[in-house]
Amino acid sequence: MKRRGKPEVLAPAGNLRGLKTAVDYGADAVYCGGKSFGMRSAPRNLSLDDFREGAAYAHERGARVYVTLNILPRNNEITAIERYIEDLRTTGVDALIVTDIGVMMLAHRIAPELELHVSTQAGVTNYLAANALHDLGARRVVLAREMDLQAVRDIRANIPDDLDIETFVHGSMCMAFSGRCLISNYLTGRDGNHGECAQPCRWKYSLVEEKRPGQVFPVEETAQGTYLFNSQDMNMMAHLDDLIDSGATSLKIEGRSKSAYYVAAMTNAYKTAVNEYMVQRGFEDEAGNELKPFHDRVVRAGEEGFADSARDTIMLNADAAFAGMPNWDSANDEGEAGGISNRQARRTGLKRQGQLVEESDDGWRHAPVRPAPHVELPQWLMEEPYKVAHRDYSTGFYYPEQKVTQNTDRSAYFRDWLVVGEVLSWSPEEGGRVTIMSRNKMEPGQLVEFLLPGRAPLEYVVPDGGIRDADGNEVPMVNNPAHVFSLPLGVEVPVNAALRSRTKKPTLKAE
C-alpha cells in the first residue's frame, strides 16, 4: 500500500469488533494479536479468519493491520511460529511486530511481502541499533518507552527517512524497561514475556527492613499498604506537536485489553488532533487536501543549522538526565540559580545546584528542531482523555524534568464518565429517531453525549417524553440495561456510536 503522507494514528484492538471500531473512528492502522505468540493473552484476540475479515475491512477504508508476534520464544516454539507466519501471510495483514531477531529473520524469509516492525520490547534506544535493524529488513522501530524527546530527535536525525519511528502517545505504562519484566513469572508462574502478565506491579505491597530501624523509605502508604510499582498512565494530547516535530512517524495508543468505547474515544481524539496539527502547520487545508508534503522539523545530520542551532530546554534536560542529574534547574533564560543564569549555562555547559558540568568534547551534537508555534487544540480534545477510565496521567519519559511516577496509594482507575448506550440505528421518520441498546440508566433532563467520528461529541438532553421501548410503548425513562429503546433525535448518528454521560459522583474502578 502507498505510504501515508502524515503521522499515523495506530490504535489497539483485542478482537475483530475492536479492529472495526478503531477503523471507523479514524485509525490509520490497527495493531492486534492472534491466538498465539503475542504479548497480550488476556484479550480474546483474533483468529486467522478474523484477520482476513479485518484486513479487508481496513483496506477498504484506507487503513492497515499489524499483527503482534512479539514474545521472546523458546526453542520448542520455533516450528510452530514458522507455521503461524506462513498462515498469516495468506490473511492480507500488512505487517508483523516482532521482538526476537531470529523471528524477524524467519519472517523476512517466509513472508517477504509483510513489513517488519521491531517491538518496543527490543529496547531500541539509539540510532546505531535502529540502522542495524533497518539493514536487516525492518521497516519500523518502536522505540523504548523510556526515551525522551531529545533522544527521539537524535535517532530521527541519524536514520533513513524511510525507517518509521513508532512511539507511544497514550495509555498504560510499565514499571519494567519496555515491558521486559520477570515479576509475574516469579510470583505467579505466568510469563509476562509470553503475554501472560498478571500485572503484579499493580498489587499492594508493604516494605519492612528489620535490621535498619529508623530508616524511612519515602513511599506514601495507606492502611491497606502501598503500591510501589504502580505507574501512571501516559497522556500526550497537549504535547502532540512536540512529539510529531521530534520525528515520530506513528503515534501508538496502548490498550489491546481495553473496551471498544476506549478504542473509539482515544482513536477519534488523537486522529482529530493530528488533523489539527496538519492544518495549523500548513500541510493540509480544513478539508484535508494536501498543501505541501508533510515533513517533521528535525534538522538532520549534515543539514545546514545542525551543529550551530541554539540549544533548547528539551536538549538541556536530556543532557542532564543522561548525565544522571535529575535536579537540573529548568528555570527561564533570565532566571538565576546557584549564581549563574540559564543563558550562561547554555553557553558554557550544564548546571546543577550551582555547579557546571562542561560539555563533552567528543564531537557529539544533539539534533535541533526548527521552531514553530505551538499547535492549539480545541478544549473538547483536551477533555477526551478524561472521559475514559484512567489512572493519574503523566507525559511518560518524554520530558526529563517531569518524568512518570508511581501512584503509591491506589491502583484503580478513575471513572468520571459512563457509557449509557450504543446506537443500533437512526431513522429520519417523525423528525428523526435513534434506536439504542441501553447500558445504563437515562432519565429526562440528563445530559448525554454521542461519540461521533471525526468531530466533537454531540450533546443531547434526554427529553421529558418521546422515549419508547422496543414495542413502541412510551416509557418515562431508560431504566433497563441491555434493552432496546428509541429516542427523538433530529441529527443522524452512525450505527455503533457510543452514548456516554458524566457520573453523578466520580468513582474508582478496578482494573
What order do the helices and strands come in, and which of them pair?
Layout: E1 8-13, H1 16-24, E2 29-33, H2 48-60, E3 64-69, H3 78-88, E4 95-98, H4 101-110, E5 115-118, H5 127-135, E6 140-142, H6 149-157, E7 164-171, H7 183-188, E8 233-235, H8 240-245, E9 250-253, H9 260-280, H10 313-322, E10 336-337, E11 340-341, H11 342-348, E12 350-352, E13 355-357, H12 379-383, E14 393-394, E15 413-427, E16 433-438, E17 447-450, E18 458-461, E19 468-469, E20 484-488, E21 498-509
Parallel strand pairs: 1-2, 1-9, 2-3, 3-4, 4-5, 5-6, 6-7, 7-9, 8-14
Antiparallel strand pairs: 7-8, 10-11, 12-13, 15-16, 15-21, 16-20, 17-18, 17-21, 19-20
Describe, in plain words, how this protein is organized in 3D.
By secondary structure, the protein is an alpha/beta fold. It folds into three domains: 8-198 and 232-280, TIM Barrel (Alpha-Beta Barrel), CATH 3.20.20; 313-357, no CATH class; 413-509, Beta Barrel (Elongation Factor Tu (Ef-tu), domain 3), CATH 2.40.30. The chain contains twelve helices and 21 strands. It has helices at residues 16-24, 48-60, 78-88, 101-110, 127-135, 149-157, 183-188, 240-245, 260-280, 313-322, 342-348, 379-383; strands at residues 8-13, 29-33, 64-69, 95-98, 115-118, 140-142, 164-171, 233-235, 250-253, 336-337, 340-341, 350-352, 355-357, 393-394, 413-427, 433-438, 447-450, 458-461, 468-469, 484-488, 498-509. A hairpin with a 5-residue loop joins strand 15 and strand 16. The two termini are 38 Å apart. Its EC number is 3.4.-.-. InterPro entries: Peptidase_U32, Peptidase_U32_C, RNA/ubiquinone_mod_enzymes. Residues 415-500 form the Peptidase family U32 C-terminal domain.
